[in-house]
Design a protein that fits this description.
The complex is a heterodimer of chains A (412) and B (297). Chain A has 412 residues and is of the alpha/beta class. Chain A folds into two domains: 203 residues, Rossmann fold, CATH 3.40.50.2300; 167 residues, Response regulator (Rossmann fold, 3-Layer(aba) Sandwich), CATH 3.40.50.2300. Chain A is 46% helix and 16% strand. Chain A is built from 14 helices and eleven strands. Chain A has a seven-stranded mixed β-sheet with strand order 6-5-7-8-9-10-11, with helices on one face. Chain A has a four-stranded parallel β-sheet with strand order 2-1-3-4, with helices on both faces. The mean pLDDT of chain A is 92. Chain B has a two-stranded antiparallel ribbon with strand order 1-2. In chain B, strand 1 and strand 2 form a beta hairpin. The chains are: A alpha/beta (412), B mainly alpha (297).
Chain lengths: 412, 297
């Protein structure tokens, strides 16, 4: 009797184990993806909505069974813009077995570039610094680089300037590699034939009054100020320009200053910081804005609503940036699934390199399709030029920087 | 010529705001000999409290401004009571380390709110058109900021020179044991010093926030930006903070107006105040108006 009971118990145990394993196999696989970024701390005005975009997209992927029975386990950690914390987060993610990594800042992306190479880990950063691509093979930039944005603005100035001679331009930049990189590329674009005169470069500080700087620029005949920094210093400058009466009422108005800025200088945050002073400000961005009111914008707002985000996050282009950043590994996983390949860093890297032509994907977050190849690791080349009209950014033109291609060709 | 005068006016505006922001550091140092590294966070807190009371609670901005000063007055007093009171008599470095820790705690608390990660702007409450005279312009925000600064500095100067409490605070700053022996409550004076510093920080935060917009990183950075001002003026001198603030503002604007963009120079507006600071400290190590203490052993 005792033997029979033992046998029965053993048989049940074996059945239970077999069932448990099969059930886990039927439940699909789980792929881990890690993000480390400034959810609090410096630049968290961008990092916070961005992390919400990442979270909502991955929730949406799992909720709508976009990967079939497979799921994405996303791990989001705050690094407070500190590269040492980013490095620790990345190392912990490696131990946890991530298949793709999402990074945030320019500093940490440049700092961890060698780690990404050594670990052969494909990475999509929130930093669009051109230097991320130098001596690296695993970094896939989501949209046009900062340099592409700034050079595109310079091209727009050149193409639309109505006065005689070359347009006189001042560059207003962040005092860091983030600010200086695009400046160097703009200078190279000028060497390559872009007909603008860079009269002065201003590396701003924590200025409470820009009167002296603005009057100096006016005295040198500057007509256009191209900014590459964050919103706060631009907001203070725009308010001072308005007070001094030097702000152009229309693009290129003679004797006045027309202000333009790239990616992190604009968006709803600029309007929040300088209401009434940013009318006519021109801004480049590869993301579709909700103020456009188009079908893409509606999808973004629907996603934000589905996961209970407030209006501020829902309408932020940084929220759109987070969505795209999370979409990149998702589309690579789908491509790997379709190809019958195992989902691991190596295969996702291969899939991303083939993501061009009919394999490119269209994102509701961006103004153009996202494509990568083995020689192109920038997702979207197109930038929209938006202008502030009635306290809202409205698209007035699209541009793909021709001179940035020339700069890259000369570099090779 | 209008260029020159515009720079003078801008320098005076920036300088007076520096002076007000520096005032809180001076007040704490004057009575307790502690450099408060959490000052920038209190500046930011004052600005956000005003914004919250105005936009969410719906109190008119002028009353919100006064209310935020009262709130930060008691907030700073509580901070002193909870964290710093027990450190009386401990080495100064311990107290300074606590203020650094306090800065991190306030950072963390503000990051838990939308104010830590979002950008805001005060609703317009002053005329938007600037005041202009002979090609020199100043915004109403700057003018009102400057007036508030001078009223507050004048008030604090009177308070320290004429009022009994102010004289007690100076006595404590001079000699804690001596003050105790004549019946002055040193802990109470420390609490008051922190409270008045909180009050002035809130005023500074509101003025800076009106100019730059409300961004936490920008606002709390001013707690550090004004350190050269208090060192130049003398850590324990209110008059020093005013004079040094205006000197710094003028140097910054003149460097930016006349040096930047010429001879390959750039960013001198940020560097020159420190260069001048170093030069002055070579000759006056205690700052322009700091007290040179002589100890006899």
């Amino acid at each position: 009797m005792k033997t029979k009971t033992t046998l029965l118990f053993n048989a049940l145990l074996v059945l239970a184990v077999v069932f448990a394993f099969s059930a886990s196999a039927w439940a699909g696989k789980v792929y881990k993806i890690g993000f480390s970024g400034a959810i609090t701390g410096p630049t968290s005005d961008a990092g916070n909505p961005l992390s919400k975009g990442i979270e909502d997209w991955f929730k949406y992927v799992n909720d709508t069974k976009m990967l079939g029975d497979d799921k994405i386990e996303y791990i989001i950690r705050d690094d407070q813009y500190k590269t040492d914390v980013t490095k620790r987060n990345f190392e912990e993610y490696l131990d946890e077995g991530i298949v793709f990594y999402l990074n945030y800042s320019t500093g940490s992306t440049l700092g961890l570039k060698r780690d990404f190479e050594e670990e052969e880990m494909p990475v999509a950063p929130s930093s669009y610094h051109e230097g991320n691509l130098v001596d690296s093979n695993y970094i896939f930039i989501p949209v046009a680089t900062y340099s592409e944005n700034v050079v595109a603005l310079a091209e727009y100035v050149k193409n639309n300037h109505k006065g005689a001679g070359n347009p006189k331009v001042a560059m207003f930049i962040h005092p860091s590699a983030f600010g200086r990189g695009p400046l160097e590329d703009t200078k190279k674009a000028v060497e390559a034939g872009l007909a603008i005169d860079i009269v002065e470069v201003v590396e701003h500080g924590k200025d409470l009054d820009n009167s002296a700087m603005l009057k100096r620029l006016m005295s040198k005949g500057v007509q256009y100020v191209i900014c590459h920094t964050v919103q706060s210093p631009v907001a203070t400058m725009l308010k001072d320009a308005k007070r001094l009466g030097v702000q152009a009422a229309s693009f290129g108005e003679a004797g006045k200053l027309t202000f333009l800025g790239a990616h992190y200088t604009g968006g709803s945050d600029l309007i929040a910081l300088a209401p009434g002073a940013c009318e006519g400000f021109l801004w480049t961005c590869s993301y579709n804005l909700t103020s456009e009111g188009n079908a893409k914008a509606k999808k973004q707002l629907d996603l934000a609503k589905k996961y209970g985000r407030d209006d501020k996050a829902a309408n932020s282009h940084n929220y759109a940036a987070g969505i795209l950043q999370a979409q990149i590994p998702t589309m690579a996983i789908i491509a790997a699934q379709k190809a019958g390949m195992e989902v691991n860093p190596e295969n996702l890297y291969k899939m991303l390199q083939k993501m061009s032509g009919d394999k490119a994907f269209d994102s509701f977050a961006t103004v153009g399709p996202v494509s990568y190849s083995n020689i192109d690791r920038i997702g979207v080349d197109l930038v929209n030029i938006y202008e502030v009209k009635g306290e809202q950014f409205k698209a007035i033109s699209s541009i793909e920087s021709e001179f940035m291609k020339k700069v890259r060709a000369r570099m090779k | 010529m209008s260029y020159f005068f515009q720079i003078v006016v801008s320098g005076m505006v920036v300088g007076s705001i520096y002076a007000l922001a520096a005032l809180g550091l001076v007040l704490v140092y004057k009575s307790s000999r502690v450099a408060n590294f959490a000052h920038g966070q209190i500046i930011a807190a004052g600005a956000f409290i005003t914004f919250y009371l105005t936009t969410t609670v719906g109190i008119p901005i002028f009353f919100s401004f006064l209310a935020s000063m009262v709130i930060t007055f008691f907030l700073a007093m509580s901070v002193e009571r909870i964290f710093l009171r027990r450190l009386i008599g401990e080495p100064i470095i311990s107290v300074i380390m606590v203020t650094i820790g306090l800065a991190s705690i306030i950072d963390g608390l503000i990051y838990l709110t939308p104010f830590g990660t979002e950008n805001f702007s005060f609703p317009p409450f002053l005329p938007q058109d600037p005041l202009s005279l002979g090609g020199v312009s100043i915004s109403w925000t700057q003018l009102v900021g400057m007036i508030i600064t001078f009223i507050m500095i004048g008030g604090f100067s009177w308070f320290f020179k004429k009022s009994t409490v102010g004289i007690s605070m100076r006595a404590v700053s001079d000699d804690q044991f001596g003050s105790m022996s004549v019946g002055i409550s040193v802990p109470r004076v420390f609490g008051l010093a922190w409270a008045t510093a909180g009050l002035s920080a809130a005023a500074a935060g509101c003025i800076i926030g009106n100019i730059t917009g409300l961004n936490f990183d920008t606002l709390h950075a001013f707690g550090i930006v004004v350190f050269p001002v208090v060192i130049l003026g003398g850590l324990d001198s209110i008059l020093g903070a005013v004079v040094a603030g205006i000197i710094m503002g003028l140097i910054q604007q003149f460097a930016s107006g006349y040096l930047d963009g010429n001879w390959g120079l750039n960013g001198t507006g940020d560097v020159m105040p420190y260069v001048i600071l170093l030069i002055i400290l070579l000759f006056k190590p205690h700052g322009l108006f700091g007290i040179h203490e002589i100890e006899r052993v």
